[in-house]
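All the exercises in this workshop are built on plain-text protein records. Sequence and backbone structure share a record, each on its own labelled line. The structure tokens are whole numbers drawn from a learned vocabulary of backbone shapes. The record below serves as our worked example for the rest of this section.
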Amino acid sequence: MQPLLILLLLGLPAFHTYRPQPPALVRVENLTYRVTLVARFTDPNQVGEVDYSAHVIRLRAGLRLEDEAEDLMHELLHAMLKDEGTREEMTGHDFIYLVAPKLISTLYAENPQLGKYMDRAARSR
């Protein structure tokens, strides 16, 4: 290999695939939640949680992009429903009528970057 070519190659930055990160802040109705990645939870099977008092959504770091996005959506649904572990019974349509406008608002109107992140995650499958 030519010495000039070697020098040029050594000077180039490393190429790697861009992996989108979840948005740092997500607005859910009138509250802003900070999204953070954590190394582990006390329960080794836990992958996410919502801290309602601190307005923080925590996700386990190191997951595949599509799993991370699904877990973020899971925690966002808890935040939209203000569901702190209750098991209220409702029909499928009751749930859909409750969640649909909040989901549209959260994903697109309030957080366009969140919609883009979810789109990238869905396309990574």
Residues 92-109 form the longest helix (18 residues). The domain at 13-123 is CATH 3.30.2010 (Zincin-like). The CA atoms of residues 3 and 115 lie 47 Å apart. The chain has one domain: 13-123.
